[in-house]
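Methods — Computational structure assignment.
A single polypeptide chain was analysed. Its primary sequence is given first, followed by the predicted tertiary structure written as structure tokens.
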Amino acid sequence: MQFVDLGGVAVHYDIDWAGENRPVVALVNSLGTDSRIWHHVIPKLAGDYTVLTYDKRGHGLSDLGNPPYSIGDLSGELASLLDHLGLSNVIVCGLSVGGLIAQGLYASRPDLVRALILSNTAHKIGTPQMWADRIGAVEQNGIASILEPVMQRWFTASFREPGNAAYKAYCNMLVRQPALGYSGTCAAISNADFTEEAARIAVPTLCIAGDQDGSTPPELVRSLADLIPGARYEVIEGTAHIPCIEAPGAYAALIRGFLEELES
């Protein structure tokens, strides 16, 4: 584990170096999770690719900062981390709000981005009223009060079996999330709209959907891919909102195939 102060916010990150001149992949996690969601994907990429993971503010081991946040705050944080590490020409893979952060990074610092992998995300997610209701529920009753509906969107029914210890652990990850970090990130998602910016993306882009995703359904991810010139669109069967957990092998294979095309 490594830590860095970025503008007064202590940020936790890990980096697996693959050697000089190897492509760099930055993995950006979703709302209510931390960098551990990439645990089974990293070994399938490490060695051939330098892999960077981190906890955005208000999540995992990183500081809370000053919520509520904007996507500009969150993408600026990633830009500062990449600058600190001396990294550019990075393949940025963002899941859900991580995909919004990736789009925000490209819009503000295209010099840092070689390609985009936009996973289980969209140019705009939900409505301001939906996010206001979510924030209100968390502020009034805590994150545990929204656990069941969130898990139904995150994972397929087969993964949510009571005997699945991993499922129980990811429930723990959500409810142990700082409530202010969660609601502050909800505010960032509520105000994010990259509809116009998506049409100006000029780097290779892969959009990934889960066929049973209840948060960003396949048709929503497809609408993002349709906005981005030349974007590739793929669906992972038998997964919901976090396919890197439910199908890490298939997920990593899609990423590897995309990266190999970049290098060819």
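Note: The beta strands are 2-6, 9-16, 24-28, 50-54, 90-95, 113-119, 205-210, 232-236.
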